[in-house]
Amino acid sequence: MERRRITTDRGPAAIGPYSQAIEAGDFVFVSGQIPLDPATMTFVSGDAAAQTERVMKNLAAILDAAGTSIDRTVKATIYLKNLQDFEAVNRVYGAAFRGDPPARATVEVSGLPKGALVEIEVIALKGKSS
User: Fold this and answer.
1) Were both Cys, which of 1, 48, 58, 127 would link to 117 (CB 3.0–4.6 Å)?
2) What is the pLDDT of residues 111-125, one digit of tens each?
């Protein structure tokens, strides 16, 4: 199976030894995204909902660069600094999907890079929605 690295300046550059995404077989695996503005690589502050909006934009940009879209996501994992933010994050996250939402896990963690309140990683099918 071939694998291809996905990179775009419309998503934040990797801040460590990882790729923004990897295409393998029929899938695109997007690394966890935190609320970094890709133009400035600065952290987007605000509450969990505001941070989730930036994260979802980052995910969509990376998926677009891979030739697919957020609606082709089949699995997501959401990491929350505080599970009390679940409802706010869920509202923003859910609004990003036009059709059936993907399978998902949500977990509370003790910390996230750069003090983020939320990080989301996804796996999507290749290709655009019909």
Assistant:
1) 48
2) 999 999 999 999 999
Cα–Cα distance between 61 and 55 in angstroms, integer?
Answer: 10
pLDDT at 80: 98
Q: pTM for this one?
A: 0.96
The superfamily CATH assigns to domain 3-125 is RutC-like (3.30.1330.40)
Average pLDDT over residues 68-78: 97
All structural domains of the chain with their residue ranges: 3-125
Q: What is the 3-state secondary structure (H, E, C) of the chain?
A: CCEEEECCCCCCCCCCCCCCEEEECCEEEEEEECCEECCCCEECCCCHHHHHHHHHHHHHHHHHHCCCCHHHEEEEEEEECCHHHHHHHHHHHHHCCCCCCCEEEEEECCCCHHHCCEEEEEEEECCCCC
Task: Compute the distance between CA of residue 54 and CA of residue 65 in angstroms, rounded to an integer.
Answer: 17
Look at residue 1 and tell me whether its pLDDT is greater than 90: no
